[in-house]
Amino acid sequence: MAEPEIPMNQEPNVSYTTTTSRYGNIVCFNHTYETLVGDHMGWQSAKSIETILPYFVMQLLVSNLSYGLMYSLTRPLHLPPFVAQILCGLLFSPTMLGRNRIVLEKLFPYRYTMVMETFANLALVYNVFLLGLGMDLRMIRIKEVKPMVIAIVGVVVALLAGAGLYYLPGNGDPDTILAGCLYWSVALSCTNFPDLARILADLKLLRSDMGRTAMSASIITDLCTWVLLVFGNACFNKQGVWNALMPFALVSTIAFVFFCIYVINPGVDWAFAKTVKGGHAGETHVWFTLMGVVFCGLITDAFGVNSITGAFLFGLSIPHGHIIRNMIEEKLHDFLSGFLMPLFYIICGYRLDLYYLLRNTSVGVLVFVISSCFMVKILSTVVCSLFLRMPLRDGFAVGALMNTKGTMALVILNAGRDIKALDVILYTHMTFAFLAMSILVQPLLTFTYKPTKTSTFYKYRTIQKLKREVEFRVLTCVHALSNVPGITNLLHVSNPTKQSPLDIYAIHLVELTGRTRASLLIMHDESKPKVNFSDRVRAESEQIAELFESMEVNSDAVSVQTLTAVSPYATMHEDICTLAKDKRVSLILLPYHKNLTQDGRLGEGNYGHKEVNRNVLSKAPCSVGILVDRGMTIAQSESSAFHAETTKKEIAMLFVGGRDDREALAYAWRMVGQEMIKLTVVRFVPGREALVSSGKLAVEYAKEARVDEECIYEFNFKTMNDSSVTCIEKVVNNGKEVIEAIRELEDNHSYDLYIVGRGYKVETPVTAGLTTDWGSSPDLGTIGDTLASLNFTMHASVLVIQQYSAANRKTSEKHQEHVEGGAKMNSNEEEDDEDEQYQMGMRK
């Protein structure tokens, strides 16, 4: 081409010249440029800052800071990372800082762009490898027709619509019309699975039918996108015209796919099985795997279908469930996403020019194309839902989710831009369309899609209602391995029998952080922890599962299911409550948020765990127990958990009165009948002084006292011949006398466990004085907080029970929007009636 003129404001001795064409700014490099070394070398040179390495380090620093800033601004708005990626690139585009001469010449000069592009492309290769590594093809169920139909129809319709929309922003180069149309359409049809899974996790829809359908359809769409991208790379050469070697490229790529399936996949599995020892892969395994990424990329690049194709296929070839997957993700994810990939986003931003787009395209066309791109997937999915007999609202939600874009969309657009199939107008137009689509997906679902809240009716929401011949279902939650011994010991003494077996659903609660990948999200409802976690979490999950499953091995009356729930602390209670309702459990067991210190006292604890406990207490669909684990763990360490029956356990149940205390008594009653258990029930009765001084409290207490008398009478009557049960009645007038009574009990017996009712916001004449003295832990209630704080009871564990009550839940759910309000009101009324029927008695 003819040598362009040097602009007036440009020095004539620089290493490049620029000109403008329909493709934007074209840079012509002068290869005779001499590097500034001369007689002055290193730091002795006055212009050492103008060498390649300092420039690259500065570019790396700026790109990381800019992406970190954009991510920090978009994350509170619950926008996907893709939005921050585009905004990071837009920041340095010719529309914004890229127009500044200082930024252009001193920060991102053209002569050093090649170095930055090299590292960015290397980062992209490994990033695409991680995409393949995190994609679980087992989620695709051939028997499920809905995801398959939605994905295929969505891709076909998007291709056809994309072909039509391609001609609106600009006419395109006549020589590259076919290539441009293909890349435009493929970019429109793609869906980003990791961001889609994260949106579903944020909205608590991963376990829903709609969520599973959307994830399966997303994976199928991704695979179709890769097939089309490989086809496009094979059909068109680097000038965007038809490739005469297309048959060779396609046949070679297909052969490489079979090579990955039948050679690499079993080969990696066999090689690691021979060399991995003790369940831990070494550094050598990681480096060989990373070398394999580059080698496979080199092979597919030689075939003419781009190096990222080989990296993606190699990632898919690594066997699922293998430890090497986790190790590579741990080593690469943070380094790539937070350190090198921002370079790629800035390069994408170089190619954006909004001013140039607006000068050559009307705003009406811009808005029409963006709106059409967004509606294509929604309309196609809604139409499919009508034929597949899906709810219309689910079809709309899945269609909206199919518009989730990610790094793959930028890869496709840049591939088309590299071969000049897309000019600056088409590239900018499509990038802003993807930006708008990604911003709209989650807010649109939040405001339009409300999952149907089906009322789950089950009788045994509380222990008090549980009959002796009915299985006892318990949902146990643990945050760490240290929470397990106390809970397993408590479950051991819960008296599982063949007539009333114990069904345990044990959840390991893992906090969802910003770096958690979607591959971890989709594993949270599996029956066993998988290896997609970090090394520490994975090892801890396996140990937790083994401890709980050992209970099932050592008892015919115990069944255990272990799983891992990954969620932010703010919404973790929703997973817990949903699973409790699905499994129809009667009790949720939670560990107290404060851990035991070396001197036996309670430490500061974890604020996130504290919020989880409080949210579960206010919204649980059944009774809740919080275990302050002290003595139970000590007993565990002295003897095997599986031979806990050889150790006598002294248990005290402190009964003050009220719904929660009746539930606590019901749980303590379940423990009766075992040789290793000795139960003491202590009822605190208010004296005359307490009744006179309490005034209005005495009236309220009298209403509950009648039901309490019935429960205590039935308990005494049915355990009167059981020598392992002792009933004591203490008359007290104030909180001080309650503490003295507990001290007297401790002098005579050293109890391993105290069981009390929470009684939150329920004052009695007995606890009126304690409410002001012991109020640091409202989730334990007055008596529970007192026991956890007393010095002479610091050796004993404390179990605080809160009974489920539909009336109590109404108060905490007033702020929530009622879905199917009439049905919900009726269900609450039925639950209240049911509670009244069971209030007068305990188990029959």
Summarize the structure.
By secondary structure, the chain is an alpha/beta fold. It has 31 helices and twelve strands.
Strand-helix topology:
Elements: E1 16-21, E2 24-29, H1 52-74, H2 81-91, H3 101-107, H4 113-134, H5 145-165, H6 177-189, H7 193-202, H8 209-235, H9 246-275, H10 283-303, H11 307-317, H12 323-350, H13 354-360, H14 363-387, H15 392-401, H16 407-418, H17 424-448, E3 472-478, H18 484-492, E4 502-511, H19 518-521, H20 535-553, E5 558-567, H21 572-583, E6 587-591, H22 607-619, E7 623-628, H23 631-638, E8 649-655, H24 659-670, E9 677-686, H25 688-694, H26 696-718, E10 725-732, H27 735-748, E11 753-757, H28 770-773, H29 781-789, E12 797-802, H30 806-812, H31 821-839
Parallel strand pairs: 3-4, 3-6, 4-5, 6-7, 8-9, 8-11, 9-10, 11-12
Antiparallel strand pairs: 1-2, 7-12
Question: What would you say this structure looks like, in words?
Answer:
This protein is α/β, with parallel strands linked by helices. The chain folds into three domains: 35-245 and 343-448, Up-down Bundle (Na+/H+ antiporter like fold), CATH 1.20.1530; 452-645, 3-Layer(aba) Sandwich (Rossmann fold), CATH 3.40.50.620; 648-804, Rossmann fold (3-Layer(aba) Sandwich), CATH 3.40.50.620. The protein has 31 helices and twelve strands. The strands form two sheets. The protein has a ten-stranded mixed beta sheet with strand order 5-4-3-6-7-12-11-8-9-10, with helices on both faces. It has a two-stranded antiparallel ribbon with strand order 1-2. Helix 6 (177-189) packs antiparallel against helix 8, helix 7 (193-202) runs antiparallel to helix 8 and helix 18 (484-492) runs parallel beside helix 20 (535-553). The protein is elongated. The N and C termini lie far apart (95 Å). Mean pLDDT is 78; it is low at 1-14, 31-46, 516-532, 633-645 and 811-844.
